[in-house]
Each structure stands twice: as structure tokens, then as C-alpha cells.
Amino acid sequence: MAQKFATREEDYSKWYNELVGRADLAEHSGVKGCMVIKPYGFAIWEKMRDILDAKFKETGHSNAYFPIFIPKSLFEAEEKNAEGFAKECAVVTHYRLKADPNNKGKLIVDPDSKLEEELIVRPTSEAIIWNTYKGWIQSYRDLPILINQWANVVRWEMKTRLFLRTTEFLWQEGHTAHATKTEAIQETEQMLDVYTEFSENYMAMPVIKGFKTESERFAGADETYCIEAMMQDGKALQAGTSHFLGQNFAKAFDVKFADKEGKLDHVWATSWGVSTRLMGALIMTHSDDEGLVLPPKLAPIQVVIVPIYKNEEELKLVSEKALEIKKALFSKGISVKFDDDDNRRPGWKFAEYEVKGVPVRLAIGPRDLAENKIELARRDTKEKMTISLDGLDLFIENLLNDIQDNLYNRALKFKAENIHYVDSYQEFKEKIETVGGFFMVHWDGTAETEAKIKEETKATIRCIPLDAKEEAGKCMVTGLPSSKRVVLAKAY
RNA sequence: CGGGGUGUAGCGUAGCCCGGUAUCGCGCCUGCUUUGGGAGCAGGAGGCCGUCAGUUCGAAUCUGGCCACCCCGACCA
Predict the structure, then answer these.
(1) Straight-line distance from CA A28 to C1' B50, in Å?
(2) Which helix (H) or strand (E) segment is A293 a member of?
């Protein structure tokens, strides 16, 4: 029977780690803090990437590619950005190895190959990109520049976790340049909306849109917009950020343009990104103790067909029907796997596809053929039913939509149930430890209070919701006046 | 990076205190029987015990360095 694995209740963190392995998504590599994304995991990321990429193009962006290395002098140009990332940068100082004279077969760094100037492995690409944009922009006619890059970046974190925080990770980073502040802010908000739409409609993951407080803001940004999602343990996960960079990078890299009147001004900028971290968000939003649960729109395999048979002859009959079904589903754009591997028995396959989160499983055997029926199991509710083979393709097409909706509604309900409106700091301190979740509280707007809460409770202000209602209140810590509630939670 | 823990076959483990080259389960290979919820029986393969050094006649076992992982902090998307 099923092996014993950690449940969410017992040990949420262990459950997550085991699940990533059991579902064959990723594993630790021989490099500290870096993961190998396995084919099944990468297939999910590819779906995310393709959908997002199409959305970026729909909104007028083009892809380009910039170097992985940034000379230190460029990196330090925008002071706040440099300062913010300095303590987590990988630095290339040499360009050659040579045979170790004292240790046969081993190599050492050739001290004669020291670089004149160190190269920073990009933790983010604003610096190299704005240094490039300087050469591309002279006039308002050159604007806007709407570019996205799919790339890997490196941030030398202390503690890493598969997908959630790895030293190297994959992401996309959009970098745009605009003639006006208004246009740049519109772009920032537009991309936050793209991320929101993707999270909710594809990942089936509800999010809260908001602004970051000054202390949580991206280094070098005037304003950071974000979407925050609630994981099943009640912790918050920042799923995407969109930054209004003001003229900070334009000033640092001296990027000016001439407007219609011939007046020179610095260019306005934005940057926005999501990463392989979304994989972690996806896992922690829907999965259960049996394994991964995938929303149909991101499932590499949407339907799996498992044949049941006792001999070659039965397999032949069953296969014929199964392939017919596969073809009908395929023509509706549904991805189907017919698993006729004879080395695995049906029970094994059932368990396997459950762990991998395949939304719909069909089992077909001689008994079903005789009755013109098929057994169908849905992963989200674990419901099993026997249905007619007639009109099966249509039924499944609708079912996949139902599953997608159900997952979203389930997550939405969970989120609603775990948002607490609290006015007393004492009550907050108690509840953050007992019930967890998101807390809507009044805050006096000062960094001091924010720091105090963080120090005393480990919770941080995740965001100031964009749709926060104006409401007279008092900061739960200091009692000073506050006009709206902010989202407070422990975060990944 | 600080505190604590762990590292033995693909995975999970026993053995370590009290030194004498290794236990069990799953998986893997072969054959037969099986196939509607992780199959059964029989036979078989696979490990210089994370790594490097030291102590010793002899090290999985004792000592030290390093590496990796887990938990708790600090940092962070």
C-alpha cells in the first residue's frame, strides 16, 4: 500500500519537500543551493512561461537578451539598487584555471588571470539594461521601449528551498522606458494586472494586489506593487512584483530624451518579474496529502487513460477504444496520456498519477467496453464516477473547466476564511501564533512600528492593498491615527 | 553565517556508545503466475559506510578538517 509520507498537518515543510520529490518536479543538485528542475517540473514551468510570454507580447512587449555578467562599475551606478543587492552577489574575479603544481590532476585558479574589474553575476538586470538603453534613447520617438527577458539570475541566499528560494533561479524580467511618469505608472499597473490575471485564471490562485511599504520596496524603486498569495499553512508568498522605478536608473545611467519641444528630460522606468518561485506557490496552494494537485490549465498531462486487461487480446480491444478517446480529446486541445506500460499494474498507475496531480484519470477495461462506459476519477475532489462513452470528449472538456473553477473557488474560500480583522496588538500577537493567516490591521505608517512588529512577531506588512477602504482607525501598536488597513502576515 | 542534528546500495534504515570491511524493507534484474487502488512466489545483482586526513596490526565505528542536507535564528523573491 501507500508509503508513509508527511502530511500537511504533521509537518508542512517536510510535506512540501517530500512532495517536490515524489511528484518528480525537482531535486537538489551537486551545487549548494541550486536545484535540478526535472522534466515533469519543467513541463509545468514551460506552460507558465508560454502563457505569460503570450501575454507580454499581447501587451506590446518584445523579448531580448542581456549578459549574465555586469561589470562592478555599472552595477554600483544606481546606489540604492547596488546597496540592496550587494550582500548576495556572486562575483567573478578570475578567468582561468591551471594545473596545480603541488597536486597532480587538480586545478587551481591561475593568479595571473585576475580580472581588471570584477564581474557581478546578475541578481537582476537593471544596471546592464539601463547602460544599454542609454545608447538606444535620444528622442521621444525612441520611446517607449518595452522589453522582456527570460533568464537565470543568482542571489546568494543563506537558506534555500526547492523552488521557493534557490541560489540560481529562472525568471522573466520586464524593463521598460517611458517619456512620462503617468505612462510608466500605467505600465507598472498594467503588468501587475497581467500577473494577477495569470495567477487567478491559470494558477487558480487568488491574490491580493497592493503596494509594498518603503522598507519592503525593491532597491532602486519609487514604488513596488505586488501580488500576495496565501499558502495552505496561512503564510504569505509574494507571487509577483512590478516596480515603478521613477527616474532613478535614467539618472544613474544618464539616459535622457528630447521631447517634442526639444527639451531634455530623464526617462521614466519600470521593471517587473515573476520566477520559478511560482512553482512553489502552485504546489502550496492546491496540493493535498496524497500529492500534487494541478489546475488543468497548467497540467502537462490533463487526462490520463489507464487500460485494464487480463491478456493480450483484452489489451488490444481496450487500446483501440482508448486511442479513439485520446484522439477525440486531442482534437479538443486536451493533452492526454495513454499509459499502456505493461510493467506497471493499474493500482500503481492510479497512485502515480494522483501524486503527479493529473486532473482527470480514465480507467477502461472489458467490463466498461461491454457497457459502453468508462470510469472517471477527478483529482481535485477524488470523486469517482462511471459515465457513458458517448459524448465523453465534451463531458471532459467541461469537467476540466469545472476543476479549474473548483480549485480557484476552494483557494478563494480558504483565503477568505483565514483573513482576520484585528484591532488589538495583543490579540494579533496571540492569533498569529495560534490561527495564522493574513491580518488586516491599522498601522501608523512608520518604519519604526513596522520593525517593532517584525521583531516581536516575525510578521511583516505584506502589502497595502490597492483596494483598501478608507476607514478611520488607530494603529494597533501605537494608537496613532490610520486611514486604512494593511495586510500583515508571516511570509515565505 | 551562528546554535543543534544528520550523512551507510536508487530510496528509507540497523550497526557506531563498547574498532575485526555491513542488517532489514522498498526499488532493480531473471523466470513463472498476475493486472478494476502502489501484485505474489522463486532466484539474483548492487555498498572501498559523504569526503579528506589522523590514531591503530585493523576504522562505518575513535579524532580533526571539509562538503551536503534537515531544524532554529539572521538575510531574502
Answers:
(1) 15
(2) none
